[in-house]
Amino acid sequence: MPTYHAPLEDSLFVLFDLLKIDSDKYGDIFSDVDRDTVSAIGEEFGKLMTDVIAPLNISGDQQGCTLANGTVSTPDGYIDAFNMFKDGGWTGLVCDPEYGGSGLPTTMGNILSEYLISANMGFAMYFGLTMGAYAAIHTCASDELKAKYLPKMVACDWTGTMNLTEPHCGTDLGLIRTKAVDNGDDSFAITGTKIFISAGDHDLAENIIHLVLARTDDMPEGVKGLSLFLVPKINVKDDGTLGDPNHVSVGSIEEKMGIHSNSTCVMNFDGSQGYLIGEKGNGLKNMFIMMNEARLGVGIQGLSMSEVAFQNAREYALDRRQGKAATGQKDEGEAADRIIHHANIKSQLMSIRCFNEASRALVGEISVLTDVIHYGKDDDKVKEAAKDRINLLTPIVKGFLTDKGFDNAVVAQQIFGGHGYITEHGMEQFVRDARIAMLYEGTNDIQALDLISRKLPAKNGQTVMAYLQDIGGFIEANQENEELKDIVAALQKSAEALQGALGYLMEHGQKNPDNAVAAAHDFMHLMGTVTFGHIWAKMALVAQEKLADDANNDFYKSKIILAKYYANKHLPEAKGFQVKIMSGADVITAMPLELI
After folding, report:
1. Do 79 and 172 reside in the same domain of the chain?
2. Is the pLDDT of residue 519 over 70?
3. Is residue 247 part of a domain?
4. Which domain-ending residue is among 246, 281, 316?
């Protein structure tokens, strides 16, 4: 059976050594989460993950959810574990104290989200979707709705979902047919069918609060006619107690590749009473508050699945004996060497670890910027710059992290050889579970297209130029650093490849949009690769500074070794992406459809 241990030491490195959240730069934003506090919270939460949540992962996958008499049941042990999770006070850590939350920064919540998802992704989604729904209601709903629904959602006595997709429309939400008819009493009758609804129904909570995109009769076709509605599974009386069922039913549970312990449902709304969130016609805008939270959360899923797969592959490689190392036997007196002595296996593990630690740093950076926007006392320019950077990097977090997270789960499975294909080791489940992150909350092709069509041109290109200037500034400041010069030189070459590809898209993408569309996925990976190169260079610099005072610290030594590994083994990929991007779309458009 696979195991999991929260990587708390690396989380602390990201927050306090790399990002320096305890510095004067951030004022009092992080005053409640000093190193000791984060360490204590992380240790306690990590123990819950290791001892309670992770052991349910395989059994939950094998048993799955069941639908009987209109009610969905979660796997054995999930109710008790969810109650333990709630009773520990973990649900409201980053929520508004006005509604029962602890008011800690988003950054703290995202650290714990990584641990929770690694331990049990299907279980984690019941909580994660609730927090997304909380964010949309907290930001857009009336005070009356917030007071009525949020305290129970913060406590996870009631959970949340988002309902966008219908049988005939996914990406193109303008085709939505679900209707909302005004009841004349501040409520609407919601009628329609939604599919692929994660955590759509279950037995973990007293009530489920659905956020539903629908169209009123007085609004036009297309996305501008959509509005967002709060639709409870069970009606809530004015005094906050539960009333009658609200004509919300489960058509079926989707049979799917992975995340079996999470109930992915077909949801039917038959004149269900719903309440408008925000203004009519702003449904997609308001839902995107939840979607943007979800995209960061899905990016964390890519990291989380890669991390747990890595941990188990590393332990296997440290134990499994096969053959002898190419340079001669390493484990004297044994019939064979442990497979970690084989250079290809060691390289695979180092590659996954490089991804995990750079991803953790990127998620940390985005989280800190989010807290600067929400809680900072800086002027508007600082907050605007933070928003711009988040917008630019969100497709990287969602798309690049989940692409690579899946790839890493496959590589980790490969390290097990044939045993990786056997259920008891859990590796094949990690592969299956990781796959969905590339598909939902906007497929990764959509993320790539969003990056090149919206994020790069934003503000006349000023946002991406500020990003490139940050990389250039680091290179200029550290070119004379003797120990890190190879890392800096590799970063410079990769940044030049990125700038070259960007220049090509700006010129040739406008002349022929197919050139941009065909290059979108490669550009997302090029930008992700360079972003990670910048992160690794920064982490190496921090480690170098720390080693000046603690020369024998193996943790910091490993950071520099991994930074050099990334510079040598991954940053050269940037040039390959540039070549592919600049080859254009002619060879694609030349192929007649009937010959494909």
Report:
1. yes
2. yes
3. yes
4. 281
Model-level pTM?
A: 0.96
Residues in the chain: 596
Neighbours of 44 (CB within 10 A): 11
Helix (H, G, I), strand (E, B) or coil at 211: strand
In 3D, which of 520, 447, 105, 119 has the Cα closest to residue 296?
447
232 inside domain: yes
Give the structural domain span for 229.
55-88+120-281
Domain identity same for 271 and 302: no
Encoded tokens for 456: 């790069």
Q: Are 549 and 479 within 8 A, CB to CB? A: no
Beta bridge partners of 169: 166
| Alpha-helix residue ranges (DSSP H) falling in 512-583 | 513-547, 554-569, 573-582
CATH number, domain containing residue 198? 2.40.110.20
- Single out the catalytic residue among 441, 476, 496, 507: 441
Residue 468 lies in a domain: yes
Is 84 within 8 Å of 213 (Cβ atoms)? no
**Same domain for 294 and 275?**
no
At which of 411, 443, 475 does a domain end? 443
pLDDT above 90: residue 508: yes
Provide CB contacts within 8 A for 483, sequence distance 6+: 544, 560
The C-alpha angle 308, 311, 317, rounded to 5 degrees, equals: 140
Domain identity same for 552 and 412:
no
Neighbours of 333 (CB within 10 A): 5
At 549, the pLDDT band (50, 70, 90 cuts) reads very high
Q: Considering its fold, how many domains does the chain have in total?
A: 3
Token pair for 77: 């042990």
Please write the tens of the pLDDT for every residue from 282-323: 888 887 777 777 899 999 999 999 999 999 999 999 999 999
User: For residue 108, what pLDDT is reported?
Assistant: 98
Q: In the chain, pLDDT over 70 holds for what percent of residues?
A: 100
Is the same domain home to 125 and 156? yes
Check whether 441 has a pLDDT greater than 90: no
Same domain, yes or no: 312 and 357: yes
CA distance 505 to 488: 26
Structural domain contains residue 31: no
Q: What is the residue-averaged pLDDT of the chain?
A: 96
Give me the helix-helix angle, 343-375 and 283-319, nearest 10°.
150
Euclidean distance between the first and final Cα of the chain, in Å? 44
Q: How far is CA 138 from CA 104, 127, 150, 226, 408, in A?
A: 16, 16, 8, 20, 36
Whether pLDDT at 450 is above 90: yes
Q: Which of 403, 353, 402, 354 is nearest to 536 (CA)?
A: 354
Residue 170: per-residue pLDDT: 66
- pLDDT bin (cut points 50, 70, 90) of residue 423 is very high
* Statement to judge: residues 264 and 136 lie in one domain: yes
205 and 75 in a single domain? The answer is yes
Structure confidence by residue, pLDDT tens digits, 139-165: 999 999 999 999 999 999 999 999 999
Q: Is 441 an active-site residue?
A: yes
- Is pLDDT at 172 greater than 80 in this prediction? no
